[in-house]
Amino acid sequence: MASLHPFDPITPGEIQLATGIVQAAFQGIPLRYKKIDIQEPIKKEVVPFIEAERLGKPLPPRPTRLLQVLFHRLDNGAFYKALLNADTRSVISAKELPKDIQASVDPDELIEVEQLCLNHPAVQAEIAKLQLPPGATVCNDPWIYGTDDPKETRRLFQCYMYIVATDHPQNNHYSTPCKFSPVFDALKQELVRMDYLPGGADAQTTETQPWKPVETIQYAHDLLQEPLRTDLKPYIVQQPHGPSFNVQGNVVSWQKWRFHVGFNSREGLVIHNLTYDGRSVFYRLSVSEMTVPYGDPRAPYHRKQAFDVGDVGFGITANQLSLGCGCLGHIKYFDGYRADSKGNPVHLPNVICLHEQDNGLQHKHTNYRTNAATVVRNRQLVVQMICTVANYEYIFAFIFDQAANIELEVRATGILSTVPFDNQDPGTTVPWGINVGPGVMAPYHQHMFSFRMDPALDGFQNTVYYEDSVPMPEDDTNNPYLVGYTTEQTVLKTSGTAETSVDRHRVFKIRNDAHINPITYKPIAYKLQTAPSQMLLASPRSFGAKRAAFATKPIWVTKYQDDELFAAGEFTNQSKASQGVEKWIQRQDAVENEDIVLWHTFGLTHNPRIEDFPVMPMERISVMLKPDGFFTSNPALDVPQSAQSFNRSTLHQPTCCKL
Amino acid sequence: MASLHPFDPITPGEIQLATGIVQAAFQGIPLRYKKIDIQEPIKKEVVPFIEAERLGKPLPPRPTRLLQVLFHRLDNGAFYKALLNADTRSVISAKELPKDIQASVDPDELIEVEQLCLNHPAVQAEIAKLQLPPGATVCNDPWIYGTDDPKETRRLFQCYMYIVATDHPQNNHYSTPCKFSPVFDALKQELVRMDYLPGGADAQTTETQPWKPVETIQYAHDLLQEPLRTDLKPYIVQQPHGPSFNVQGNVVSWQKWRFHVGFNSREGLVIHNLTYDGRSVFYRLSVSEMTVPYGDPRAPYHRKQAFDVGDVGFGITANQLSLGCGCLGHIKYFDGYRADSKGNPVHLPNVICLHEQDNGLQHKHTNYRTNAATVVRNRQLVVQMICTVANYEYIFAFIFDQAANIELEVRATGILSTVPFDNQDPGTTVPWGINVGPGVMAPYHQHMFSFRMDPALDGFQNTVYYEDSVPMPEDDTNNPYLVGYTTEQTVLKTSGTAETSVDRHRVFKIRNDAHINPITYKPIAYKLQTAPSQMLLASPRSFGAKRAAFATKPIWVTKYQDDELFAAGEFTNQSKASQGVEKWIQRQDAVENEDIVLWHTFGLTHNPRIEDFPVMPMERISVMLKPDGFFTSNPALDVPQSAQSFNRSTLHQPTCCKL
């Protein structure tokens, strides 16, 4: 493993190594593994290494390869975190964590809880009361149990139950939710309580009644009642000379960009050590956390607040992609590995895809006197993963272009999380959701993402500031015609937060004060084009807000520290309060010309449309990072002209002539 | 011409007809034509006609075909507007307009003013003072003369002068601005005044001095000092079975959408009579106006405020496109016609293009239990025009998709409008612009667009309202866990304005109260996903703001009236004040369940980056219209599965094996 790069994802051999080391340290004790993964390497060890790489100098010693193992002791239920040195094959530390800390869900556990639920006599008794017609069965989605009791230390799952009306692998059970919902202790494997769900427009619940069959609203093509469209013609992307990218291991080079594709079970895709034309730009980019709180105020729905990164993990929920589905053109796939509950490596083929796309025009100018035009198309490189978190899908893409822009694009799709809703009085609606089918309602919710940016603009000491556009004072000398406007800069000198502002056209920038642009006379910089979003709607006094402090402010700046990767803290499952950015800013660190991290919270207040059911047309949000005085001119000037000889488009001939 | 559809653009025959009718009415008087175009047909005549078309019923009488002619009498300089009935070949009205009303610029006039300027002895005297090196010449961009004097009635142009250092058809003269700027009266063809431009960081001007040669920052590929990139491989879109669209005349059908492609010299591309699956959606969509005020407070820059629709026109500045430049794949082009100053038709080939594009995934869901996935790609139909307004380029696209979404995408590119800037003290900067090269500065400015939406959601009586997402009160009964949130609706009952609000996640919707969705029990609706933007920065007391009232509020709702098409009024060139939306709302019309128009002002506060020079990587803004309860489920459910047999992607093979 000596040849592994510090940013390489974990290998199956490392998983086996970790299992061996830990099992040796806990001789004879049965263990259940929750996570075996790389531990982010220590930055101060990595920087000299990647700087030597970048500058083509002799490499210093390789940073220590660290592994992280989370596991339960099955003899006493204790939850441990161990840190291993893979180079020396030794344990650095192994400590038991407090009782109220819960690990994230792992895929084996999810299946176990599902089965535990379905096989439980109390659940079967409820199912019997439904008096289902022949062929209909029941399934369940085990849900993370959002905190509502500060003293709770059990490992709980709330199982939402659904009727499966059709034996089809894509039956949409979310269309037919049941009105009972058992809660299980996953460690003790026992039923904690049977919850009953509100059946109508208020919070009232009833005993389970026989099911009155309703139509299932299906999305699968072979379950649709209407025929498919037949008039969509093929659209084929051909790259006869191959792609413009080059991949060596996990290192991608494309159009002056170079970066390392990282993968871990929690964040999934990570971009490491991003450079442009040999200049350092970002040390690390990732989607650090997200939370999805629901707005339906009724029990038990107040506990629906998923942290899809911390509670589950985008790496372990990443789809295994295949040719022709997610991308067009020439596709490179990257694989990943995770550990199962026994500590064995599990191969995750094709969890990240890489391809080029054409995004229309990048720049054009026609000199109207001569009619001579320069036209350059916008070729992009897309690095993408698609995560299925039970009902929902997220498509995350880092998109790079030739003008040195970086985009984080998020697409939300999949199926709405639904609840039962009897509207026996036709016309009944609720103020926190929308009826999407017979007997089914989709509550309002928010999707709040945390984009973590660890900048390295021409070096590792950077500064964040914001710039507002403001009218000049109405002054006869300096602004006599009252049209002047200017900008105001505010430097974030101490770790803290900031607000976005549409009214002031607030733009956040990251700069390096030690590197002055020779033409603008200002420090080289990148700007963050934020996605100004409504912040968390839950009351600051709610557990929902306390657990997701990152989602209460759009901008956070912290001083870099190893181990501060996740906006809501390391352990979010059943957390009582966040242990993330809101703690780290309290250090009041100086963050001007320091090694800093910029965190942007953005999201969707998603009050569903009925058009989002039974499967949701993607909702797209985008955040951009753009050079702003980083170069001395448009960096895409040297992209060749768009030409028919290259693009080979075809001309539409009027069909009237043929008629 | 009896076979023309009410929404068809003007034909060359109609231009000749109009010239003949007008010249006959003004026998013997020399005329100069400013504009000959269709007049928007009278809506109450059109609606029965298109409704009969839509429903396949016998057609009522065709609406009167109206033509509009703007012209100057050359004997007395009077400016006239005539309205003609093309069916009866007669003048409906012809009236002289007040002296302070100026027509828009026409291409012939632009060239005339350019030549007038270059040939003028006073200009030549200034050029001589530059003592240019051999081979260097001077050119000028005649600029619309923004109002600063309420008594001005002359037809003025401010000519900005540039040094042309290289005899190349794409020399970037914007890199080398001169410091003198003559003002001409275009009707009297005379010099009004020689303005001198500030040369440094303050408003001070100086006599013209010999030019100290500096490098021109070039964008043309064969003028670049560095070689072009050689590692970009072809990316070819093939549609072997042809496009999925069908075009008959100007009517386009694609994936349940049907609309009429309109074109006129002022707005360029217009979408008329948009239906989805036979249901009426929008009567008319267009970019109604835009204004570009500059933030440099110094004379004469305070007069830089272009109205690119009203002062010039997107139809007459639309690029004539060619295969392989603007779009990939299978392209249909539409032509247009305008009149020249003598009243002759001018053919404008390929001013609008139509093509399909792939926009990644539209929806996906994987049932994690069975691993069965539904994956549907997002095919789009793009109708696009590209306008060159002197230095700048705008790319406007209406984009339709299979989930019944409509997007207006604007891309700003082209070249920054620059001013001379001596920074003899290296390090000098100004607070209202940025240095982009030696001796050249790019001032801050705004681009404010008005998107005019004339809705017809299942009929012509519609209502606009907005919906905010707000926390529920902290109430032990209804919101005991403090996580509940709901929506508040505010109906715009009277013509007026509204603000956007990110903090309240404000969404604007258009609904038809007479059509209730059978599942949601709410009126069928579309929502407008606004582009919340900083509004006009100029003081309300400035001419800049008075002339562009539409740019002071993001949302306007008016009751439909024929002739109310342009947000800042019909005549914007040298206007003293707007005669547009701000006047029309004052009627205090009832707009609930009425024939209404929704106007959305959005834009860019564009404080240039040096990366925007010498040609600007496109800046993209997008506004979406999405069905919201218009259907009873996702309208793209019936789009076939994305499959490799259809998409024919290729797999990247590691190159390491070949090395």
Keywords, separated by commas or semicolons:
39% strand; 10% helix; Nuclear Transport Factor 2, Chain: A; homodimer; 33 strands; ten-stranded antiparallel sheet; mainly beta; 659 residues; Beta-galactosidase, Chain A, domain 5
> What quaternary form is this?
homodimer
Q: Per CATH, which architecture of the largest domain in chain A?
A: Distorted Sandwich
Q: How is the biggest beta sheet of chain A arranged?
A: 10 strands, antiparallel
Q: Percent of residues of chain A in helical segments?
A: 10-25%
Protein name (chains A, B): Amine oxidase
Cofactor (chains A, B): Cu cation
Subunit structure (chains A, B): Homodimer.
Keywords (chains A, B): Copper, Disulfide bond, Metal-binding, Oxidoreductase, TPQ
Report on the structure:
The structure is a homodimer of 659-residue chains. Chain A has eight helices and 33 strands. The model of chain A has no long low-confidence stretch (mean pLDDT 96). In chain A, a hairpin with a 4-residue loop joins strand 17 and strand 18. Chain A has three domains: 85 residues, Roll (Nuclear Transport Factor 2, Chain: A); 117 residues, Nuclear Transport Factor 2, Chain: A, CATH 3.10.450; 395 residues, Beta-galactosidase, Chain A, domain 5 (Distorted Sandwich). Chain A is mostly beta strands and 659 residues long. The first copy, chain A, is globular and about 80 Å long. Chains A and B meet through strand 9, strand 10, strand 16, strand 17 and strand 18 of A and strand 9, strand 10, strand 16, strand 17 and strand 18 of B. Strand 33 of chain A pairs parallel with strand 16 of chain B.
